[in-house]
Give the backbone structure.
Amino acid sequence: MQASQRISGLTGGGSDGWDVFYRARAMVAAGEAVTELTIGEHDIRTDPSILAAMDASAVGGHTGYAMVPGITALRDAVAARVQARTGMATTRDNVLITPGGQAALFAAHHATNDEGDVALYCDPYYTTYPGTLRGVGAVPRAIMTTPEQNFEPSFTDIAKQARGARSLLVNSPNNPTGVVYSRATVEGIARACCEYDLWCVSDEVYDTQVWEGAHVSPREIEGMAARTLVVGSMSKSHAMTGSRVGWVVGPAEVIAQMINLATHTTYGVAGFVQDAALFALNAGPELEAKVGAPFQRRRELAQALIAQQNVVKLVPSGGAMYLMLDMRATGLSGEDFANRLLDTHKIAVMPGESFGAAATGHVRVAMTVEDRAFEAALGTVLDFAGGLAA
Ligand code: PLP
């Protein structure tokens, strides 16, 4: 028996630029000491206070089916948080709790695209995007961005691809680039959505990790609340990647229909995980700052090191846990550079090409090892690049 075309075609096939990553993992499994700057996962674990809240909830009996849309207190807390951060009126009716941001992305595209509809996304992109769009039966169409424009999509870039499309997926702070979209960029996104009658799916899972500039949500731009679905998550803000808890915020009538979708797919999120998320949100911004601080520190270390040479350029980034390095002066593709770096120095970085054609000649560095090891590894990356360019 054959699986459906929808599932067998999900990944799009072909080389996806992840060979370096798999090679690094194999080297680690074989006992080699590889410095892995590849995956977007904190080097700290979930805070013990959050785990204690989870434990108390589970032991206290919150282990049965939880309410499908999310427990009321957590929906209220997410609504209050979004309202406080954006000034936009938001209630629990605007919130669906999901098993992480990825499930929220899937649900948001399910809610906005019919079979064969064109769903736009920006290149470079977070790895799951095209597959998520295909997974709901949509046809992914890339909007190419450029390093010269800091990989931010302009109104014109979007307009070129927008005719006949149904939705536009944007992500700021951005993975893989770390770029925080300017207000002008977000206004251009809003204008394109309104002019071309597009849904906007705004992936804001890094919204608490902004080191420079300010996070602007498309939902807060005039005319956008009725056509925007915001994806949020506890994974990055609270180092709760394994807990699988996130949300979609959007118009109440669409959220009501997405609750039906949740009933027929996930059937909600574990109650004790939701109680832990509620505890974590109620703990306030200090806990978020503690989780984000290592990335902010390492970004500063990186800026200082990169300023001392002139081969590798840092894409001016303002957030998240990543740096995008322009390696084009070495004459190598991102993939070739990453392979040689792994072979020569046992340091693993992600080729820009793993995130789409727009980031060719770049590599993404995840700032997810402790400060001294990070600084040493980055110093080696820069020296190696300098040697290649000479
Ligand atoms: N969106 C972006 C841009 C991400 O980088 C990630 C994870 O790396 C996700 C969504 C999914 O996060 P989660 O499902 O853990 O909330």
Remarks:
- The first strand starts at residue 35 and ends at 37.
- The longest helix spans residues 285-306.
- DSSP finds 13 helices and twelve strands in the chain.
